[in-house]
Write a structure and sequence with these properties.
Layout lengths: L17 H11 L1 H29 L3 H25 L5 H37 L1
Length: about 130
Amino acid sequence: MGRLIRKKTTIKKKSKNPDLDASASVEKGADSIKSSAPSRDAKAKTILPLMKKSSAGTKTSAGKQKKNFIDKSLQFLREVKIELKKVTWPSRKQTLGSTVVVIVLVMIISLFLGMADFGLSSLIRVVLR
């Protein structure tokens, strides 16, 4: 299964005049600064576990990869077995009948193509002489 990717939160654009931003934050007072601090901590708490999981997933040993490959292969073969049980197989009589039809059609088509080839090659010989 793939990892879930969280949507990044948008960051407010900085205004072109930094003096206005500084004066606006001073006017808001210390209460607004305190209220914004917990949101940063909350963001850090949600981002750090994601970073740890992604970095831990990249450090897999060769033994684990080999075991994972074998497990996936065995699971695939089990699923193939289950699907093959669902197949409706033709009877022996149906199989022989279909085989005879295919062989007869191949002979008819090969005879037609052989005659067309012989006719066209003889026509080309006559034209070239």
